[in-house]
Amino acid sequence: MRVMIAGAGAVGVSVATELLENGHEVLLIDVSADAVRVGREPRAEWLLADACEITTLDDAALERCHAVIAATGDDKVNLVVSLLARTEFGVDRVVARVNDPRNEWLFNEGWGVDVAVSTPRLMSALVEEAVSVGDPVRLLRFSQGDAGLVEVTLPADAALVGARVGEVVWPRDVALVSVIRAAHVLLPEPDEVLAAGDELLLVATTAGERMLSGLFSPPRAAGPGTEPPPSNPSSPAGTAPADPRNVDEEADEDEDEENGSGPPRPRPETPPAPREEPPPR
Predict the structure, then answer these.
(1) Band (183; pLDDT cuts 50, 70, 90)
(2) Which of 96, 183, 248, 257 is deepest in the core (most CB within 10 A)?
(3) What pLDDT score does 26 carry?
(4) Is the pLDDT of residue 245 over 50?
């Protein structure tokens, strides 16, 4: 595979060395004469020119390259190189370096970028991955569909511990791609039982990643029993409160009697007044 790398700084030369070790052809391009020193990597091809110029890319025979890596320290240059490589030369694979995380939103397929590599974000993700248990950590972002590679270490008290992979209902736009257990990489077979300490690798969109946290929380404990309603403080001690149904029935009877629509309620009888005896003559 032939690869062109724009930017012969420490990052570009290091990537070139790795690719050469794996048997690939590498062309390094840089506009700085101080950076273009063949002795830094004699096995690579070198070109002193501006990678943002189409004439430079023509001289580099970019149409013969299978991949382009924009690895300069300037985000504007990396975007221009990516766009030219994709639109003018139809390069199959374009990888771009993001120097300022605030510019990361620009590095997408609209600018010809297949994979954006943000060094600050990658370093912070590696730190979070080392110390975070139970929290999703985004390791890599893909250019299409706002998807990324997410890692989660399963805590011992997670609700998913002991569950089979096939029983888990994953959120929308989330897919489990691998389970790392000790020194083994496991395929997420439906009958595979998840264990505490498993590292789960998932592909998820930003929205799907936000919904992942609830899956790895501890199971919710049963709530306390329902307490009896407080007694009516106006009721005498030891006396049960009045039945509201009886109160409603009495109110309905009073209303019917006033409207003349129901039988009159019996009135308590008044005892007759005592007869007065006439005084003796």
Answers:
(1) confident
(2) 96
(3) 96
(4) no
Domain with CATH 3.30.70.1450 in the chain: 132-216
Q: What is the distance between the terminal CA atoms of the chain, rounded to a whole angstrom?
A: 148
Q: Which two tokens stand for residue 275?
A: 């007869």
Q: Give 96-100's long-range contacts (Cβ < 8 A, gap of 24+).
A: 96/69, 96/70, 97/7, 97/11, 97/69, 97/70, 97/71, 97/72, 99/73, 99/74, 99/75, 100/75
Secondary structure string (H, E, C) spanning 111-128? HCCCEEEEHHHHHHHHHH
| Residue whose tokens read 């006396």 | 239
- 271: its two tokens: 């005892």
* Burial per residue of 88-112, b for 16 or more beta-carbon CB atoms within 10 angstroms, e otherwise: ebebeebbbbbbeeeebebbbeebb
| Class of the CATH domain delimited by 132-216 | alpha beta
- Quickly name the fold that domain 2-117 has: Rossmann fold (3.40.50)
Q: Is the pLDDT of residue 53 over 90?
A: yes
- Burial-class residue 131 by CB neighbours within 10 Å (0-12, 13-18, 19+): exposed
Start and end residues for every CATH 3.40.50.720 domain found in the chain:
2-117
